[in-house]
Amino acid sequence: MKHKTSSCTAILVGKKASIDGSTMIARDEDGYSGINPKKFVVNPAKDYTGETFVSKYSGVKIPLTGKGCRFTATPNGLKDEGRWDEQGINEYNVAMSATETELTNPRMLGHDPLVEDGINEDAMVYLVLPFIKTAREGVARLGQLIEKYGTGESNGIAFSDHDEVWYLETVGGHHWAAQRIPDDAYAICPNITCIEEIDFNDQANFMYASDLKSFAEKYHLNPNPDHFNFRKIFGTQDEADAYYNTPRAWYGQKLFTPSVTQEPTSQDIPFIQKPERQISPEDIQFFLASHYNGTVYDPFNTSASGNEKEQKMFRSIALDRNQSSCILQIRNDVPAEYAAIQWVKFGFYAYSAAVPFFTNIEDTPENYKIAGKDVSTASAYWLNKALAVLVEPKYHQFIYQINGFRDDCQSYAIQRVEYITKAAKGLTGEKLTRFLTDENNKTAAEITKRTKALMSDLVKQSLLSSNYQFERGDNL
């Protein structure tokens, strides 16, 4: 079976690096084509005892046991290839985002080949998120599954809870390592192996496959034995990385740590970086919807000094394969019962509005549960994908209106989060869950309404500004 890979971009933020003390992990899910319908759903708690998970994608079969908790997810709208839950938050306020597609170098793959029927992106969230109560538990559970069943892909997976943020990377068929992101730092992950130096004596901040170090020694994989640089031992550092991957890390660090001078094609851009200002959800939204804005590399030509060659030089974050973008935010300044928010955005990220969903809920809005083969504005996914079709041909005509729309929706979303947080005080149990569910529906309905109004206006403008008009006398 030929695996289909997605080329995503992720950012992880520690609680002291964020503007309000939240932990945040976020990722753009960019599919293997321009069309990959997505939904946003809630999976109820249940007893998994006796269930055998069978992947429609890889064929792996994994017996499950025990009670699993409720969790949100953004699965595929079409079930032909399986679940692909991708990212969500469970009832213990543990967040998981899976996966960031990465690459392992040929030498490592020669000694530990990928496993054709292993655990892959389609299955990871379902096999892990319902069964964990901390981010650290998530790392341990996924790591154990990979060592036992193997994986057919090289991936990066993010975990967080209210206290810790972790990033796990798989290399080869059975090996992995994970690093805790320092509280005062952030990390950007652009489809390359990211983790650098591993300290095997620091169990508080590193976890790894049981034989990772001995395996590297046995097969002479480490080119610098005085260090254990995970990226350089197991990852790739080729020309494609320099133009497809590292520029995205360069741009993110340019935004949040502007005093650091780096080249977009550098193979040594650090994984862990300290921000020069605290990072907000709005900052993450901007980064994950960016296209080298304001630089000569912007494919939309927002810099007067850029030429066509420069504008096509690097892979942009915003591109036509954008499907679903989520910020998984666990707040620390409110009660745990309503601390978790999943910001969801469908479609082309540079045009769409992000919707904040509290995750202690029993259901999601109807239009977020619909994502079929056919285009329909009854689906939140298709509504936002259609928006991109209107905007792209007339980008420079519409972009200021689009930016205004996104800003207005962002302000509205912030107001809603504040209102719902205050109104939730004193509510508990089923009353709280029902309240948060109802309020999520109202938030989504308003942003859907605004998106449809925007599209209606853009259609009218397009009809009135067509290049294919002709009046009597135009040829005189």
TrEMBL record:
One BP term from GO: proteolysis
Molecular function, one GO term: cysteine-type exopeptidase activity
Pfam family, one: Peptidase_C69
The entry's keywords: Dipeptidase, Hydrolase, Protease
Annotated Gene3D superfamilies: Penicillin V Acylase, Chain A
Source domain of life: Bacteria
Known catalytic reactions: an L-aminoacyl-L-amino acid + H2O = 2 an L-alpha-amino acid
EC number(s) stated in the UniProt entry for this protein: 3.4.-.-
InterPro entries xrefs: C69_dipept_A-like (IPR047804), Peptidase_C69 (IPR005322)
Enzyme class: hydrolase
Family as reported in the entry's similarity comment: Belongs to the peptidase C69 family.
Protein name from the UniProt record: Dipeptidase
